[in-house]
Structure prediction request, 355 residues.
Amino acid sequence: MGCWMRPFFVLVGLLLLARPSVAADPLTVGLGGRLREYFFVADQQTAPPEKLNAAGQFNEALIAAEAKTTTADGTTIRAYGRYDIANGNKQNLNLAYVDVGTDFGNFRAGTNFDANTMVIGDPIPEAFFTADEELIADAVEPRTGLTMRDALTFKRFVENAAGLSYQSPAFYGLRLGVTYHPTTDAATGPVDLRTKAHNAVDVTADYDGDFTGGTYRFAGGYFTVAAPDAPIVPNVKSTTRAWNLSAGLTYGGWELAGAYMDTSPASGLNEKAWAMGALYAIDRWRFSTDFRHATRLSVFGALHHEMVNRVQLQSAYKLAPGVSLGMIGFYADQRDGTGISYDSKGLVGGIKLDF
Prediction:
């Protein structure tokens, strides 16, 4: 997202030049980041002539810059940019936005966010992974067209898209978020309606409450985007739509949560996914288990739905502030559109450093 680097630093510069008389608090500028190193082994069912290696490794290195201030009327202004320094390509700015917080709510403009993901966060609790660390989908050879990364929030549609977002203040525990994206890809400038999905809208609401010893939350959202006008391959429908629900409960060291999403793409090949999980935390240890299930039509008239089932067992230990070790065991079963099943199992170990 290199096209966002220039306006991002211009906005940071404007904050730096803001007059002291305007700001109630001095401007603060900070740097942060994270480093992830994972190693996995997997036993996978292969299809000739495949020769899959049983071992692999992933790494991630991000550097983040942030500038923020508060004006005399209590408005907070925050500019944030995050750079991927380990992906080896030129477009390494993978998150950049300006956030303005007022008594009337939060306004955000930038790239790589949506109200649905901001409100729901991690749809299910995980001891070591987070929602944006979906490694099993990369460690296991895909046999279907199902989406397993960000399968339960609308981030799957707008991961690299620029947009405008508003999130209301909490009112008796209820919040509302709305996001608009001119297009769902990383393009800037005029949107060609013939070739690009356009005018994406995400509306999400959530309710947070508490009871003696714990908390609970409910969230749900609706997403729609107009499909490109492709005369060579006509669309079955003119829009892609999706809706999702999420619920969670905490009590003592326990957390339980689940989520469901129904996707109706313009192609008409509907997709459904759900997941549920439980987490227990004690002292420096965290343990979790979760189950995910997704189905999809591969082609019209297919005798079988594509299907993926996955079970994960995770553990994590906090070595020091910002440093943790983790181990994940997984089993995945995939069934393609012809009814052939492929099962996989394995282990993932890793270390996380956040600063």
Remarks:
- The longest helix spans residues 5-16.
